[in-house]
UniProtKB/TrEMBL annotation:
InterPro entries, per database record: TROVE2, TROVE_dom, TROVE_dom_sf, vWA_Ro60, vWFA_dom_sf
Name of the protein described by the UniProt record: TROVE domain-containing protein
Coiled coil: none
First-listed, main subcellular location of the protein, grouped into a coarse class: cytoplasm
Lineage per the UniProt record: Bacteria, Pseudomonadati, Pseudomonadota, Alphaproteobacteria, Hyphomicrobiales
A GO MF term: RNA binding
Gene3D superfamilies noted in UniProt: von Willebrand factor, type A domain
Cell compartments where the protein resides: Cytoplasm
Organism field: Rhodomicrobium udaipurense
Cellular component, GO, one term: cytoplasm
PROSITE patterns found in the cross-reference section: TROVE (PS50988)
Length: 522
């Protein structure tokens, strides 16, 4: 068998022209668009929230300088498409445009703000970014005033009571600084209440309900107000969030995404018991396939919720509970039902997973979920929804000192525990990220995208993955892509920053699978 590892070690460059080996060249515009999706220009996505810095995104600054108002339209287009894991990069880029030296760029940024910042959380992010760049200058004031002016009064009132502050900013701060005009008595009463907490009969109904809820004397009164004004759990005072009657009123109108987050609290406070009305409220939401589909949540979101619930504690909220088997079963069923929400790439994939011991001992960053559970779940989802998907595991066969890739028997008929047992059969040391491309070359596999799932042991070994990928492209004639996901990693750098067909994923969350699918398709 031809040894591609030794062959590549003797080579400096592929023998074919660069346009074949590097089919996704990068320029300032493509780096600008990459930042709007990934939050970085360098082909690296970090799943955890992090601060953005203008010094680290020169291509974005150059694109604003050269593209002017057109660059703002690109920001708006990417934000409205809602394909990025976070809207924060688009909001930050818009803040850069709002403080730009070109007046036309600033005007375009002001006009785009209500469409890019579609929630109050986005607005607070914009205010924080603008403050850090140039302070709350006249352009920022006009933009924020326009945002308030373009919201419908009732919608704005609901957003104000639901999302009161973020990053140290409040609506009181922004309304005081921007001085938006009040077009009607209800809007004026709303602004006055935000500024002074002064109530009046002209206030929108949801604000009246919110104010009354903060002063409710009994659980019955609080539950009645929640039902009458359709108040979400974010508006409920902390001392009522442990009351069974109050939580039962909230659960009746709770979206699936919020319900997943609140299952532990609902069990700890007694709303959910081994039998009774509470289970009858919650279980239909988790067992209803249509509701699961309409939630648009990836299976990974249900897996995270299942893992959190099984732990039986929430240290931040100082809650403990005994997990209910009925809820665990419902979450497992919802995990599989949500496969319909996962995006199919329609491409030929080779997915290589790490089954080493460290995968069971390490955890997805920011969660209690083991890296092995996360990787097994992603392998199972891909095996279930992709048309052509080779699944393999890194392993060192008995009697050998060389790492190999061997086929993994995971298919659409399996449940998650079966997939976990299958991956646990393979063991290796830190993975060789070039191996999938070398394996595809040796076996003449036609692959559009290679995906490597591992924990935090991410490194290049004897052959750099970028070189192996270029060689595979050159010899196969396929413009293949490579994704390396270190689900428990705090940081690594494998992707060639000049190659738009390589992506490093650092950490993992419920939005990451869609990002990977979009990257492979695009």
């Amino acid at each position: 068998m031809f040894d591609y590892r030794k062959f590549l070690l003797r080579r400096i460059k592929p023998r074919v022209v660069d346009t074949v080996a590097l089919p996704f060249p990068m320029n300032d515009w493509s780096r600008f668009e990459r930042f709007l999706i990934l939050g970085s220009e360098n082909g690296r996505y970090v799943a955890r929230e992090r601060a953005l810095n203008a010094e680290h995104i020169p291509a974005v600054l150059r694109s604003l300088e050269v593209g002017g108002a057109h660059a703002v339209s690109v920001i708006e287009e990417k934000s409205l498409a809602s394909r990025a894991p976070s809207n924060a990069p688009a909001v930050f880029a818009l803040a850069l445009a709002a403080v730009h030296g070109n007046a036309a760029v600033r005007r375009a940024a002001v006009a785009a703000l209500p469409r890019v910042c579609r929630t109050t959380d986005h607005l607070f992010q914009f205010a924080e970014a603008a403050q850090g760049l140039r302070g709350f200058d006249p352009t920022t004031k006009r933009a924020v005033a326009l945002w308030y002016a373009e919201q419908k009064t009732d919608d704005l009132a609901r957003q104000i009571v639901t999302s009161r502050q973020r990053a140290g900013w409040t609506h009181r701060d922004l309304i005081r600084l921007s001085q938006p005009l009040a077009a009607d008595p209800a809007r004026k009463a709303l602004y006055d209440w935000v500024a002074t907490e002064k109530t009046s009969s002209a206030l929108p109904s949801v604000v009246k309900g919110y104010v009354a809820l903060q002063h409710a004397k009994t659980a019955e009164e609080a539950a009645t107000l929640i039902a009458a004004h359709d108040l979400p759990i974010e508006t409920v005072p902390k001392h009522w969030r442990r009351d069974e009657k109050v939580l039962r009123a909230v659960v009746e109108r709770m979206p699936v995404k919020t319900l997943l987050r609140e299952l532990g609290r609902l069990t700890a406070t007694g709303v959910l018991k081994s039998s009774g009305e509470g289970l009858n409220l919650v279980l239909p939401s988790l067992r209803d396939i249509t509701r699961v589909w309409h939630s648009h949540l990836h299976p990974f979101a249900f897996l995270l919720a299942l893992d959190d619930y099984r732990k039986g504690s929430d240290n931040a909220e100082k809650l403990t509970w005994e997990p209910l088997p009925q809820v665990v079963d419902a979450l497992e069923a919802a995990f599989h039902a949500a496969f319909a929400n996962a995006d199919t790439t329609g491409k030929r994939l080779l997915i290589a997973v790490d089954g080493s011991y460290s995968m069971g001992a390490s955890h997805v960053v920011g969660t209690g979920l083991s890296a092995r559970d996360a990787v097994a779940a992603m392998a199972l989802v891909s095996a279930s929804i992709e048309r052509e998907c080779h699944l393999a595991a890194f392993t060192v066969p008995s009697g050998s000192d060389e790492q190999r890739l061997l086929p993994v028997n995971i298919n659409a008929t399996m449940r998650l525990p079966e997939a976990l047992r299958e991956i646990a059969n393979y063991s290796s040391d830190s993975v060789d990220c070039a191996l999938p491309m070398l394996c595809a070359l040796e076996n003449d596999l036609k692959v559009d995208a290679f995906v490597v799932y591992t924990d935090s042991e991410v490194r290049a070994k004897s052959v750099h993955p970028a070189l192996a990928l270029r060689e595979y492209r050159a010899r196969s004639g396929i413009a293949a892509k490579l994704v390396i996901a270190g689900v428990a990693s705090g940081g690594f750098s494998i992707a060639d920053t000049n190659d738009g067909g390589m992506l490093d994923v650092i950490g993992f969350n419920e939005k990451t699978p869609r990002l990977i699918s979009d990257f492979i398709r695009g």
